[in-house]
Design goal:
With 164 residues, this protein is mainly beta. The chain is built from two helices and eight strands. It has one domain. This is CreA protein.
Length: 164
């Protein structure tokens, strides 16, 4: 006998929210290394290198280096990290697209302070040159920063970027 289980409204809402997050799961950062830049007894400042896999382009990984503030505030997530970041994206496997890409879209965002500052990685399609251009920058609620870094991944011969 088949029975249908119905979820309570709160469980249904939680399940729907979790399902919405699945496409963004691949965009989480993976810290692959770091160096200390300023020793503190409560936790050193450091430069971290993180890998971000493009969730819509299998075979492309972006490496972002950025400063992380240590100390008590850094440990608690209350410190404001500096706005400088550097990016290098590379083809790390066969390129496959999960679907057509927008001309420009956010690939990843991560907060750099408790409320006000966010790091962005944006993908821009350069259809004329058949390349994906990745830009990293940070913004603030009150005022952003013009500090940025850019890199590009040329598509292999015979691979065309599908556009929306």
């Amino acid at each position: 006998m088949n029975t249908v289980r119905r979820l309570s409204p709160s469980r249904a809402c939680a399940s729907a929210f979790a399902a919405c997050l699945v496409p963004f799961a691949a965009a989480h950062a993976e810290e692959i290394g770091s160096v200390n830049t300023n020793f503190r007894f409560t936790g050193s400042d450091r430069v971290v290198v993180e890998a971000y896999d493009d969730p819509q382009v299998q075979g492309v990984t972006c490496y972002v280096s950025r400063a992380r503030t240590g100390g008590v505030k850094g440990t608690l997530g209350l410190a404001e990290d500096p706005t400088e970041a550097s990016i290098a994206c590379r083809q790390v496997g066969d390129i496959r697209f999960s679907g057509p890409l927008k001309q420009q879209s956010d690939v990843f965002t991560e907060r750099m302070s408790f409320v006000f500052k966010t790091l962005h990685v944006v993908r821009v399609v350069d259809a004329k040159r058949n390349a994906l251009v990745y830009l990293t920058y940070s913004d603030r609620i009150a005022s952003g920063s013009a500090k940025n870094s850019v890199t590009a991944v040329a598509m292999p011969s015979g691979t065309t970027i599908p556009l929306k």
